[in-house]
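Note to self: keep these together.
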Amino acid sequence: IEEAAMDLGARPWKVFFLITIPMIAPSLAAGGMMSFALSLDDLVLASFVSGPGSTTLPMEVFSAVRLGVKPEINAVASLILLAVSIVTFMVWYFSRRAEASRKRAIQEAMDQTASESWQQPKKQMLEATA
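Structure:
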């Protein structure tokens, strides 16, 4: 698709933003969510890499859970769950809307093609009788 767009005269940046990015967007989103989920799992690595006085979210959650679950931990977990739910709903909504628009455009093109194919024999018959 990219090569076809460039053969038809599209600039590389336009091809990148209008063709490449929409094609890889689901993979980018899935990779981002996966890396976020895996970053919460890397507690040992985070504890070795972080410097003195700095803390990461996994380290903070682990230290808070060791002392007992506080409402702040529940709030952080709820915010993460809410953010993932909102992003998932938005992706579902926009993909459903785009699919409905695509189906409507296909139907309109088929209707237009069908009406044109009916009009041509009528025009030919009228021209033949005239």
